[in-house]
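note to self: dont lose this again. the chain is below, predicted strucutre after it. 131 aa total, dont forget to put it in the shared folder this time
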Amino acid sequence: MKLINRDVDYAARALVFMARANKPTVSVAEMSGKVGVAGPFLRKIMQKLAKAGVVHAVKGKGGGFAMARRPEAVTLRRLIDVLQGPLKLNDCVFRQRICQNHAGCVLRHKIAGMEQRLLAEVEAVTVRDLA
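---
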């Protein structure tokens, strides 16, 4: 199991590049070469971030993407939520579906505690920290 998928990794790289560039807008073409991600793939990721309000899409000449929030306000958890969905360690390690014992499962309660600590850690990491 990977904690962070490829989309989150690429988004973090792009946002760090944008934070360091200190420019009003950055084009996908400019980011693509610097962060090592194919342009069309990066564009799709950036569009998802724009839809979620993490960045603004700027159309026209000199367009690209602009940070919608300050780098210290964009957390790793937000990127994970937007690009791969809520972070869950496991619903049940014994079956493919949630069993009837879900509420009283001792193992599930232990995992829930680990999950909360992990969420707190990824919430504490910001784009500013990475830049």
